[in-house]
Amino acid sequence: MSQPLDFIHEFVPGKSARTLLLLHGTGGTEQDLLSFGHAMDPQAALLSPRGKVLENGMPRFFRRLAEGVFDEEDLIRRTHELADFIAQAATQYGFDATKLIALGYSNGANIAASLLLLRPAALAGAALLRPMVPLVPKTLPDLKGKPILVAAGNHDPIVPPANTQNLVRLLERAGAHVTLHAEETGHNLTEQTIDSTQRWFASL
Ligand code: MLT
């Protein structure tokens, strides 16, 4: 018998080999990004876990000490826990773990970036919506050729443009193929973000 998977989650089978790993923002649930993910890639399967950390009742993927100040020890532990969940879910649902693309918003984008930096084999690529540098790894991972979208808001009060630039540089130094979409907005997602994310998925 297979072990029960240890994240509350949704899995929606797809019609192509690709699976999207949907990672919600603070206060979200596994339901939040299902229709968004389906709209971004209607053929893909969807794996959508709920973050296990509660901050005043709001689910997150890792603890923070203040806004934009992360509990790095917890982040590292939660990143490995999520990577292990992905591998177990791939076995249980029978999807190809080498074709998994993350689609994360805010806190979800940050854990996706952390997966890329600490467990690069867990993801084939990622769409990071309003991400920041989650941590700087001791050794640079090998992200050679992995497609990564960084969708930033130039007036994001949580993520200063310099932080976005640092993330892009870090991912590029690791060999990733980064597409930066910066727009004149804040932390919220706009029609423009959705259009550019959809175009990015169509280009994969
Ligand atoms: C959030 O509110 O989720 C933050 O902006 C990002 C984070 O804490 O990871």
Radius of gyration: 15 Å
The largest sheet, given as strand count, sense and whether it forms a barrel, is: 7 strands, mixed
Q: Average pLDDT, to the nearest integer?
A: 97
- How are the strands of the biggest sheet laid out side by side? 1-3-2-8-9-10-11
- Report the principal-axis shape: globular
Stretches where pLDDT is under 50 for at least 5 consecutive residues are none
Strand percent estimate: 15-25%
Q: How would you spell out the order of helices and strands?
A: EEHEEEEEHEHEEHEH
Distance between the termini: 36 Å
Give the helix level as a range of percent. Answer: 25-40%
**Count of runs of 4 or more consecutive helical residues:** 5
Oligomer: single chain
Number of strands: 11
Would you tell me the structural class of the helices and strands?
alpha/beta
Q: List the ions, cofactors and other small molecules found in this model.
A: D-malate
